[in-house]
Amino acid sequence: MAAAIASASPMKIRASLHFRVTLAFALLGVTVSTLLGGTLYLAMKDLEQRLIDQALAAEMEDYISRRERNPHSPPPATALVRGYVEPSERFATDVPPDLRTRPPGQYALELEERPYRAAVAEQGGRRFYLLYDISQTVERDRAVLALIISGVLFATLASVGAGYLLARQVIRPVSLLAGRVSGAGADSPATDLASQFPPDEVGQLAQALDHYRARILGFVERERAFTADLSHELRTPLTVIRGATDLLLSDKQLSEPMHSRVERIRRAAEEMSEVTPALLALARETPGTGGATDAVPEVRRLLESHAYLLNGKPVDLSVQLPERFMVDADTALVRVVLGNLIRNAYSYTDEGHIGISLEGADFIISDTGRGIDQELFRNLFEPHMPGASGSGIGLSLVKRICLRYRWQLAVESTGGSGTLIRLRFAASPVLHQSFTSS
After folding, report:
1. What is the pTM (predicted TM-score) of this model?
2. How far is the C-alpha of 256 from the C-alpha of 139, rounded, in Å?
3. pLDDT band for position 115 (cuts 50, 70, 90)
């Protein structure tokens, strides 16, 4: 089983407000012009068909009337209209087969690859046919359609241009407000943005930002005061506790049980003295600039201060350290991270082997202890997890420090068989955690 925790989520590409306003105008223009052009074209087609059908009906009625007055009257034969009558003794009856079988009415058909409107009527035992050539009408419709499409394209381009210009005017106050907000530093005094804009929606937004910025500045000021007071007020009593415990431990008349209890108090005070600077460093907006830290003496000191956790345990300790191992981070934060990892290895290894080494850019610690339970591993870096650390914040604090400095932390654990932790101090884009279970 494996799991991973990433320090950052993938970025999403978002269109600017200016682009979205311009796009809205363009879509509005193309939609309106398309609907208008399509409606006009369909209305024109319908009107043309109605006029042609009316003309055919009138021509058919006129020919039947002439035929009743003069049985020898010929059917129409013009450039656009052709007529037929069946039966007929004097006139050709080469009626198109597709037309001959149709019942009375009006139809659209194609003969010899030319479009026609046709009319069929019956009167006095005879069938009358009329064909109206609409080729010119179709060509004219195509020209009108091309003109409408050109109009739609022109309207779309005009909408894009108008939208671009209008968007600049509409978005300008918002862009101006964004520039004023981004130009105001966190330490600069509160700026009255609302007075710089008219009392419209942008002015209301500026007023809301003024209130929000005032709240943020107040919060930052209170946080600074708190961290300053915490640094002073905690260090003084911790120094007193450590001094008092040192005096008590130097008393040779102190009983063994009391000696053990005082020793626990001294260790707790020392751990609090280490954690306090780390928490204060994390409270700062940016990582500290205290310079590089040599991790080798810190590891040696931590191994010595946590040695009591191995008292009475058949554990073989192997340590491989170079002469120097520089880490670009605050010493307090480096000490907290290494201390948590070493303390966990010491605490949860009852027998076997613990290996600690600094290789390349990695701090590696392995043990043959109890391993990490699968259920616990899922929330290993959550605060106040039982078994995560004796300090109560343990690996949660380690995770925050790693994310702050973009260190890579890999944890591999086999249930009941031990744990391998690799901490890479070099800047890495991802904080990684993995779990294996046999």
Report:
1. 0.51
2. 113
3. very high
